[in-house]
């Protein structure tokens, strides 16, 4: 994944207002199978950036490319997952996972097989026939991941997928996602507000500036065992990086602050 000098401007909000620049001079790349997190102040253009990579939006300037090919629209090699699970309430978990495959030329039994394989990978086999309201928030996010992975993407884009969950469910899910993603060799871009999560999950962290967003810092996490975020976050190295990120994002850590 490669972004070169990307800018995205939106029309001004009122007639005659100047255009509004969400991101500018945005450049970075992500290697194959690498897990990169992006942190940055709210409103700095993180979701805008993911939409550009997903091909749901086009840059005003610059270039976005995947596997050396410029992104010009939605692409089946990209899986996209948001904070809201967007599961269809009238479909079972299995039928939700099958949903993304319905546009493909694929027999019903092949579709079913593929969906069941993803449910197994996301440890949801026993919930296949339940409806979204019958499972927990964490299970719903796992179902959303299964649906994302069912299309067999090379790249997954995760926009704050854990931020609506309670602290304990979040830890369990981080571990579950990390294991699934590491074992499938996916190239991953995670947007998160949670600095510990960024350290726990990724190979590299990119820090974005205030709007218009661009990358102002890059940190190599340098911790082993990406499939075990809980063990990673307990290391002194993780603590140092989180402290450093607080500083980079101008979050005051003094006791009297
Ligand atoms: P983040 O995800 O970092 O919180 P966003 O990428 O959602 O930020 O938004 C960045 C800025 O761009 C915000 O000020 C937002 O209001 C604005 N923005 C996002 N999408 C649009 C759009 N389609 N039209 C106009 N403004 C937008
Ligand atoms: Mg956002």
From TrEMBL:
Taxonomy, superkingdom: Bacteria
| SUPFAM superfamilies in the cross-refs | P-loop containing nucleoside triphosphate hydrolases
Annotated signal sequence is none
The record places domain ABC transporter at 1-235
User: Any idea which GO molecular function terms this record carries?
Assistant: ATP binding; ATP hydrolysis activity
| Classification via PROSITE patterns | ABC_TRANSPORTER_1 (PS00211), ABC_TRANSPORTER_2 (PS50893)
Pfam family, any one: ABC_tran
**Keyword list, A-Z:** ATP-binding, Nucleotide-binding, Transport
Family affiliation: Belongs to the ABC transporter superfamily.
Record-given protein name = ABC transporter ATP-binding protein
Task: Specify the taxonomic lineage.
Answer: Bacteria, Pseudomonadati, Pseudomonadota, Alphaproteobacteria, Hyphomicrobiales
